[in-house]
């Protein structure tokens, strides 16, 4: 192996615009919130984390400290394209890989430092990258983990060939990814794995086939070089006198067990070595025996960048032991967690993408049902990230941003509409309005709703404004309410807002929230629409609120108890238009008949099989308590309902 720099020599360091050194100790983050329990939790519960991994890793460090035995990450490759989840004819954006050089390194660098803080002294990290960025990432890894802790750079040959030349490419076909192995120390956990012999090697060396058994074998000399000078015994064996490697008793034992090969009578005997008893060749740093997933592979879930389980099995067995903790901070389709579970390792998987989260959870739920994975918790980083956003910009500014993204105008907080006339700046009354205002009231500023009698800023026709009853904006003829960041609006909340909106002269009500209580969808009023704030807003990206999907359910009584039937499903279609798109759009649903708990704990779940079938009716539910139903569509959108 080429010589590396030692800790005492000058360090090679990569710089780029915007590089900022991460703190030596991770900044304490708000704890992750438990969203769901799958299975009955025990002393240790595996974790699927939904949210930005920088926050999740800092929170995990505060909870676990340096507890991780193996890190595998498959971050974006900075290839300048987007990647998708594809199921049938549906194509959903999974993530954008359009960082552009410096931004990519600025994303990865602090996360590598966070990962290092979570790793035990015996731990290994494997970073899976493309050839476009591997050289930069390796220098950054040298800086974070130390050049002396470099272990291997493995070339994983994904494809047999690319026909780039026929398309005019003036370069060699690119058929491999790069796996960068670094340890925390020289005492890292390591198991030497072996691969099967190459078929050409087998044909050359294991060319003999044993009659009767069909076992392939090679032979090696039983004679001893050096003869008497080396103290080797001389005697006759199978009609041949020579100096032999072993004593006569050992030779007879080999012969009686069929381990001696003599090509013809009188030929010098040789020892047999059967192919099926060989361990194989120790793994090298070029892996050409595992291919990328194709459409016919059973394990495919439709995720563009999904890696084969065989690749992760190799890494897990080589760099960890049963019971060790494996972490993947860019978990994508959940392959690392699935493999870790099957290999009796504990796991933590993190991803911010909603399609990735939905696919991973569905995959791990199925493994839990089959007994191949233990119980796990679903944790959410959104509440903490949302809280940090509110602390940074303030609740009023955040509401203003949400209204602007929704295309709504605002008016002074706390004002509702009352009687016949209000001064400028308050909610007014009478008969006319400008074209961009709600009708049936006197003219007022664009960011106000209109009503009737004169009102003070905090009163409506003499009534004190309830904080949860405020209207915050309007869009067209609809009043708009933006729920507070911590609030999960219920059916009662929405009914109160609807009364207030109607009193204000609004023809409709739009409620915008980060998340709704399952009962919110029980409001069966055509004038009410529910809108969800995109999670990306808490992660520093803009995004318009989207219509919250809605399940239609029927409860049926049977002698064994209640059953729940899904009868329809409505959500934005591929063009963004609200539509009844039907039950066939759902890929999974689950129910929790202990629905009083704050954490969803499915007692029963099902998902669409490869044949396209999925039951639309639940098993019978005994008892009369609240039941929470959750369904996921092919785009990863989650819809909940509650049955009391």
UniProtKB/TrEMBL annotation:
Catalytic activity: a 2'-deoxyadenosine in DNA + S-adenosyl-L-methionine = an N(6)-methyl-2'-deoxyadenosine in DNA + S-adenosyl-L-homocysteine + H(+)
An example Gene Ontology biological process: methylation
Annotated ranges, domain DNA methylase N-4/N-6: 68-354
Keyword Methyltransferase applies: yes
Molecular-function annotations in GO: methyltransferase activity
Polar residues: bias regions: 429-459
One family name in Pfam for this protein: N6_N4_Mtase
Family: Belongs to the N(4)/N(6)-methyltransferase family.
Protein name: site-specific DNA-methyltransferase (adenine-specific)
Organism: Nannocystis radixulma
């Amino acid at each position: 192996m080429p010589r590396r720099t030692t800790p005492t020599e000058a360090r090679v360091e990569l710089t780029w615009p915007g590089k900022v050194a991460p703190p030596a100790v991770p900044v304490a983050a708000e704890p992750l919130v438990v969203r769901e329990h799958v299975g009955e939790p025990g002393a240790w519960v595996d974790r699927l984390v939904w949210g930005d991994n920088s926050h999740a890793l800092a929170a995990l460090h505060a909870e676990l400290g340096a507890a991780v035995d193996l890190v595998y990450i498959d971050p974006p490759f900075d290839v300048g394209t987007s990647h998708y989840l594809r199921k049938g004819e549906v194509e959903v954006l999974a993530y954008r890989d359009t960082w552009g050089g410096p931004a990519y390194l600025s994303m990865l660098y602090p996360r590598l430092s966070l990962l290092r803080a979570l790793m035990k002294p015996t731990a290994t990290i494997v970073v899976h990258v493309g050839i476009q960025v591997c050289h930069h990432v390796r220098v950054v890894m040298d800086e974070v983990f130390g050049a002396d802790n470099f272990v291997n750079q493995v070339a994983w040959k994904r494809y047999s060939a690319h026909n780039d030349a026929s398309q005019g490419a003036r370069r060699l076909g690119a058929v491999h990814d790069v796996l960068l192995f670094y340890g925390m120390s020289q005492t890292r956990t390591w198991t030497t794995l072996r691969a099967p012999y190459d078929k050409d090697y087998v044909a050359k060396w294991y060319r003999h086939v044993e009659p009767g058994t069909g076992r392939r074998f090679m032979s090696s000399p039983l004679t001893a070089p050096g003869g008497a000078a080396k103290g080797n015994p001389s005697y006759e064996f199978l009609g041949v006198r020579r100096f032999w490697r072993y004593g006569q008793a050992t030779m007879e034992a080999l012969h009686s067990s069929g381990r001696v090969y003599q090509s013809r009578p009188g030929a010098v005997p040789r020892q047999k070595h059967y192919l099926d008893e060989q361990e194989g060749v120790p793994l090298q740093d070029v892996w050409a025996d595992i291919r990328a997933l194709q459409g016919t592979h059973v394990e495919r879930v439709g995720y563009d960048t999904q890696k084969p389980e065989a690749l992760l099995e190799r890494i897990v067995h080589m760099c960890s032991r049963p019971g060790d903790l494996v972490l993947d901070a860019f978990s994508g389709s959940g392959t690392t967690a699935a493999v870790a579970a099957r290999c009796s390792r504990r796991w933590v998987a993190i991803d911010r993408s909603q399609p990735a989260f939905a696919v991973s959870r569905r995959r791990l739920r199925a493994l839990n049902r089959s007994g191949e994975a233990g119980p796990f918790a679903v944790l959410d980083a959104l509440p903490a990230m949302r809280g940090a956003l509110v602390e940074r910009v303030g609740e009023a500014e955040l509401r203003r941003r949400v209204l602007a993204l929704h295309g709504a105008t605002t008016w002074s907080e706390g004002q509702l509409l009352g009687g016949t006339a209000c001064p400028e700046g308050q909610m007014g009354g009478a008969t006319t309005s400008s074209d961009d205002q709600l009708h049936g009231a006197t003219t007022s500023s664009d960011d106000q709703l209109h009503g009737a009698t004169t009102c003070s800023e905090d009163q409506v026709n003499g009534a004190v404004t309830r904080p949860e009853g405020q209207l915050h904006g309007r869009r067209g003829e609809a009043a708009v309410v933006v729920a507070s960041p911590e609030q999960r609006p219920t059916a009662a909340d929405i009914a109160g807002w609807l009364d207030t909106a109607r009193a204000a002269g609004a023809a409709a009500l739009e409620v915008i929230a980060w998340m709704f209580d399952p009962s919110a969808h029980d409001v069966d009023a055509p004038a009410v629409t529910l809108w969800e704030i995109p999670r990306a807003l808490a992660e520093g990206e803009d995004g318009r609120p989207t219509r919250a999907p809605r399940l239609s359910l029927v409860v049926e009584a049977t002698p064994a108890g209640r059953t729940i039937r899904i009868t329809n499903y409505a959500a934005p279609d591929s063009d963004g238009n609200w539509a009844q798109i039907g039950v066939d759009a759902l890929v999974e649903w689950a129910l929790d008949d202990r629905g009083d708990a704050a954490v969803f704990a499915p007692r029963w779940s099902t998902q669409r099989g490869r044949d396209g079938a999925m039951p639309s009716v639940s098993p019978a539910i005994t008892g009369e308590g609240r039941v929470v139903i959750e369904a996921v569509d092919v785009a990863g959108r989650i819809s909940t309902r509650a049955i009391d």
